[in-house]
B box-type domain-containing protein
Amino acid sequence: MASNILMCGTCDRRSKTTEAVKYCTDCEDGFCSECLDFHENMKVATSYHVIDIKVVDEITFNISKFCKVHSDMVLEYFCSDHDALCCRSCMASYHRSCDKIIPVDVAAKGVKNSTMYEEIVTDVGTLNAAIIELGDKREKNISSLDDSKVTV
């Protein structure tokens, strides 16, 4: 993957350019060491998940925590009837008659220990290995073409 330098979001908003050392998956923002210290000491952020910035490069997709219909509302519930995440407003309006609405944290309990999760991790690993192999073959083909070009 391309290695892009992620900048500290807090510094960036203050017109400073500082490289991020950690990433908060809840804030969806990078933090330099100074801003990270403030972030970790804020009461509201005590339960947030901060990961090493090197891991962010491996994240290939981003799932928004906000409702597409009500952009200011957080997705807090899972409707088993519709197999969909929903916010409080959606729950009250679109899922009023649904019987199986549970909080996301309850719905996600034990997911990482499930067979399906393990199969997905294995499949992603296999796909990643195939991508790396294809990249290596591509590099060899480019090198071979360059050698042929010199010979011709």
The chain has three domains: 1-60, 63-109, 110-152. Strands lie at 22-24, 29-31, 50-52, 77-79, 84-86, 101-103. The mean pLDDT is 86. The helical segments are 9-13, 33-40, 53-56, 88-93, 104-107, 115-151.
